[in-house]
Design a protein that fits this description.
The chain is an all-alpha fold and about 70 residues long. The chain has one domain. The protein has 3 helices and no strands. The radius of gyration is 14 Å and the shape is elongated. About 15% of the residues are buried.
């Protein structure tokens, strides 16, 4: 997420409950991805989980930006 997007989302979460909820989920997904990233080797199931987490994170960002811009 770029800095201007982060600023927009952080501002929107102060007034929009859904953005706040999505932002918290985004941070949780980020932590899970960091945990996977610390591993030296990922199994095929962990690689699949990493792809899924990245997709969920991206969808969340897109949704937050849409809500923040409305």
């Amino acid at each position: 997420m770029e800095s201007h997007e982060r600023e927009l989302i952080e501002k929107a979460q102060t007034t929009n409950f859904e953005v706040k909820k999505l932002y918290k989920e985004h941070q949780e997904l980020d932590e899970k991805l960091k945990k996977l990233g610390r591993k030296g080797y990922l199994t095929s199931s962990e690689e699949a989980e990493e792809r899924k987490l990245k997709q969920l994170k991206l969808r969340g960002v897109e949704r937050m930006l849409k809500l923040a811009n409305s």
